[in-house]
Design a protein that fits this description.
globular, 12 strands, single chain, alpha/beta
Length: about 500
């Protein structure tokens, strides 16, 4: 009996130690590999201010991110799990298709996608001279009229003619009856709510399987928001709005500009790929909050839903397999934000852009799906003002609590963006407009450098993805509390 116990202990210790020892030996010979599995975050670290109480949890997270053969184990599990799910997924793919087909422009774009082997326009922001030169050269290329959307023109003469034609069209449109306008508005509302015929299915409690290979974030808050069953009554709206009004008032008194920016979720823009669900209201919480604040205060919520939906068939604006928008979606939305800061909004086609392939996104990982079942996704290289040198302190894709972006832009106003991971396709464009941009994650407001950046800011942008709209008021309140509590807001 005693021998059996000792043998069991030895076997248990071998199970624990042999993988680590083998991994270390492989590392000495350069054989071990630690490849990217699409998590889009940095590995956990043990913080400098760790305490005896928090050390256990921090070390556990540290070790779990460095577990020997971790990437291989996760990849193998996803392939096995995906193989089991694949027959059902193939059945759904054959049976269901989106009601609304994509326009020919998108089809052409997808056939012309270039595989970039990991190099993209974003590398221009990390100090690569070759990429920066390439981006600048591409930005100087003459824009071809046939590459633009059909309703746009280029060249000075064409722009003049286009303006005259636009004025004539506008005059003609103004002659339409109010009844026709109402019908058009009604059609747009119906278009927003269009969904696929696929039955609703949420895998791993995280990922909603949509039509045509589209995946959506399956958190309960996202589903609740899409269904529109989280609207507030008058008293709840008044309480929700109070931090926004208080912060706007405080910033006005102290010479700071403040903007509140809500990034629409993918299912709101591409609802035609979302599976069939019962919708309680087509009028969602973001719109309800925006309209309440507009009617009862001077606060404006920037919510570029209409702008993105108007362009969703000209460009793919969100990743199919990731929970975020891509560079094109981020560009169009950020242009709406910049427009409120006195910077002229510029259509995407004015700048050089090129579709590029990327590997599968975070929803593949969250759903334990087999990436082999999902083809490469679509992003864009966008040469936005590439004559401006933009240098971030951290990679845009990393999940960091704080980062700074400096540039050669002439605008010296200091801008602070307080938000979430949607920042990855916001910061490059802000950096091209402002010489000093700081990003602070909404969960890291209490750090000393974050407080200092917020206090010294000329412009404060509080951003949230729409899935967190229910918590947006609390996020604004946290920022307001920092401003009110620190001497930076006093005369």
């Amino acid at each position: 009996m005693k021998k059996a116990k000792i043998t069991g202990i030895i076997i248990f210790m071998m199970i624990l130690l042999i993988p680590s020892a083998l991994w270390g030996i492989m590392g000495l010979f350069g054989v071990g590999r630690d490849y990217d599995i699409g998590e889009k975050r940095e590995k956990s670290r043990i913080s400098e201010d760790v305490t005896p109480m928090s050390f256990g949890e921090e070390y556990e997270n540290y070790y779990n991110d460095r577990l020997p053969f971790r990437a291989d184990i996760i990849t193998l599990y996803r392939k096995i799990d995906g193989a089991v799910e694949k027959p059902y997924e193939d059945y759904l793919a054959r049976k269901y298709s989106p009601k609304k087909e994509q326009k020919a422009e998108e089809t052409v774009a997808r056939t012309d996608i270039e595989q970039t082997n990991g190099e993209s326009f974003w590398d221009a922001y990390t100090g690569s001279e070759e990429t920066e030169t390439s981006a600048a050269d591409k930005n100087n290329e003459t824009f071809k009229a046939e590459d633009a959307p059909k309703d746009e023109v280029t060249g000075e003469e064409d722009q003049t003619a286009g303006e005259e034609a636009g004025n004539d069209a506008e005059d003609a449109q103004n002659e339409e009856t109010s009844e026709e306008d109402e019908e058009e508005t009604e059609e747009e509302a119906e278009d927003v709510m269009q969904m696929s015929d696929m039955p609703f299915r949420c895998v791993n409690d995280k990922v909603v399987i949509g039509a045509d290979g589209w995946l959506f974030y399956g958190e309960p808050r996202n589903i609740r928001n899409f269904k529109g069953n989280n609207l507030k009554n008058e008293d709840e709206l008044a309480n929700y709005a109070r931090p926004f009004i208080s912060m706007k008032t405080l910033c006005d008194m102290n010479g700071k500009e403040v903007r509140f920016f809500v990034c629409p979720e993918k299912e709101i823009i591409y609802s035609e790929y979302y599976p069939t669900v019962e919708v309680a209201s087509e009028y969602r919480l973001t719109e309800q909050v925006r309209d309440y604040l507009a009617a009862n205060s001077s606060v404006n919520i920037i919510y570029p839903k209409t702008e993105l939906r108007n362009e969703r068939n000209n460009y793919q604006l969100y990743y199919k397999h990731d929970s975020h928008w891509n560079a094109a979606g981020g560009y169009l939305a950020t242009q709406c934000l910049l427009g409120t800061l006195g910077i002229e909004r510029t259509p995407l086609y004015v700048y050089y852009y090129k579709p590029v392939k990327i590997e599968s996104g975070d929803l593949i990982l969250l759903g334990n799906l087999n990436p082999d079942s999902y083809p490469d996704d679509l992003n864009y290289d966008i040469g936005y003002k590439s004559n401006i040198e933009v240098i971030p302190s951290e990679p845009y894709m990393s999940d960091v609590p704080y980062m700074e972006v400096s540039s050669t832009a002439q605008n010296e106003r200091r801008l602070v963006l307080i938000g979430d991971s949607y920042k990855m396709h916001i910061l490059p464009y802000l950096g091209a407009e402002f010489a000093h941009v700081t990003f602070v994650h909404r969960n890291s407001l209490e750090s000393g450098r974050a407080v200092e950046a917020i206090c010294n800011a000329d412009i404060i942008v509080v951003e949230t993805s729409e899935g967190y709209i229910e918590d947006f008021s609390r996020q604004v309140w946290n920022v307001y509390s920092i401003l009110e509590a620190n001497t930076c807001m006093t005369d």
